[in-house]
Every structure is written in structure tokens, then in C-alpha cells.
Amino acid sequence: MPPKAPIKIFSGTQTRYLAEKISLCAGRELGNIKLVNFSDGEFATAYEETVRGSHVFLIQSTFPPSDNFFELLMMIDAAKRASAYKIVAVIPYFGFARQDRKDQPRVSIGAKLVADMLSTAGVDRIITMDLHADQIQGFFDIPVDHLYASSIFVPHIRQLNLENLVIASPDVGGTKRANTYAKFLETPMVICHKYRSKANVIDEMRIIGDVKDKNVIILDDMIDTAGTMTKAAGMMMEEGARSVRAYATHAVLSGPAYDRIENSALTEVYVTDSIPLKKSSAKIKTLSVAQLFSETIDRVYNYQSISTQFVI
Known about the structure:
Largest sheet: 7 strands, mixed
CATH class of the largest domain: Alpha Beta
Number of strands: 14
CATH architecture of the largest domain: 3-Layer(aba) Sandwich
Shape: globular
């Protein structure tokens, strides 16, 4: 039987803060890779050690700008051309996931395009977390390990020891996620029904369910401009809620998000470190996913089941 391929872990430029935590949890050194920048903005990636015959894990979230995604593509291509045995892209935050279907005429399905580009570059497997739409896994013809932040959020919610707890979905699309949490935690659920005329703009919102004298936790896969979260929190407090907290996996936090959260009725907002925070905030707390990804990488490398990584 041939010897097992060695494991090597590398990080993209903008996700090194998380890759260092993951490698520390795994008890492994990050591999050496450099990014060469040209004066016109073009860049090139180069491995500074051999990856021939290695099981290569590339850690890179593809949050804006698109340079992060293109850097990942070039890392994959370089590893393939350097004769890596297997190439696994570890993408804590999968960018362009909101473009998962044609919701109006003459638009692209960006998530499918991203999947095709990753496959064409030569990746053998994807490890990601809390995709905006579950069906994106089907855009790939390679294995996709889809992790959930529930394994981090559920224990943390329990530690809060909140009485009269209610789980809330910020929109109809998130009811499945909220319902799963509610069943697991044995709590009621409410839904925020919103109407948008265009992206990032909420025209109307209504709360479906009872929040009076309840401690509410709003769950979502990401916070972008924070318009939905903060508006929902304000309406719930007006309807008699004791407190409103939010848990969201990916802290996109663009535009006026930080100011909206600071000036909102939200008591606390918990996010993961799949995306680095642009600045600190008294209300925003970070829960690390490093241990979750470290254990998953180890299980994938050793051909073990990852089902034990899921709480719900």
C-alpha cells in the first residue's frame, strides 16, 4: 500500500487571520505561499515549498473584493500544476451565494458561475459553512462539505440562560433555519415578513407571532447592511419584547451596518470570524469557527465521517 499523502495547509492573503487559528487548533504549521503584486494591480501566487503528492487545503473566504476569489482560483491552479495529490478549498464564507437563481429577467446566476470556475481551476473538494442557499451544493460535481454555525451558536445560546426565549427568522426564506433551532431548543418561533422593492431596501415589515415579554434571538446566515436586523429588533421591542439579540454566521457588515447596529434596539449581535470585522463595536461579539474547521480538515484528511460536527 502506498504511503499516505502528506497534508499541507495554506492561506489566502485576506483570510490568514483565521487560517492561523485553524492551523494552531490542528497543531500544524501554515505552508509558505507568496503573493507577487505588479504595479498595474495584477498579481501572481507562488508556493515556496513543494506540494507534489500532497493533500493541500487552501483556506480563503471569498468576501469582496473579488480579488479574494481570484486569488483562490490562482492558488488552486498553482497547486494543480505543482502536482498536488488532492486540492481542497476551505471557504468559510462563500461569496456570490445570494445569486443562486434567476429572480428577474436577464440576470446571471453568480453562484453557479463561481462553482464552475472553482471546478475548472481544478479543486477536488469544497468545505464551506452556512451557504445562503442550500441548493448551491448541487451546483458542484465534486463533494461539498457544508458545515453549520449551529454547532457554535446552540451551546452559546444555552449558556445565556434566557427565560421566555423565542427564536425569530428575519425573513420568510430563513424560516427553515429558525424552525430547526426552535425545535432543538424547544422554544416558540416568530417570523419577520418583509417586502423589498430592490436589494438592501426594505419597504415594509411585519412580525408574525407573539414576542410580548419574550427574549428574542434573531437567526440569519449573514448581516449585510443590517437594515433587516435592526428594523426587526425595533419592531419587536415596540411589541413588548424584553430583549432582542441576533446571531449571524457571516459579518458582511457593509455600508451603514455598524452605525445601524450601534443605534438599534439590539442588545448584542454574535457573528463568526468567517469574515474579519472592519472595526470594533461594543455590541458585536465574535465566536471563532477555527476549531470547527480544524476538526473537519482533520476528518476529511483521514477519510472519517464529519456528521458528528453537526449539532442540528
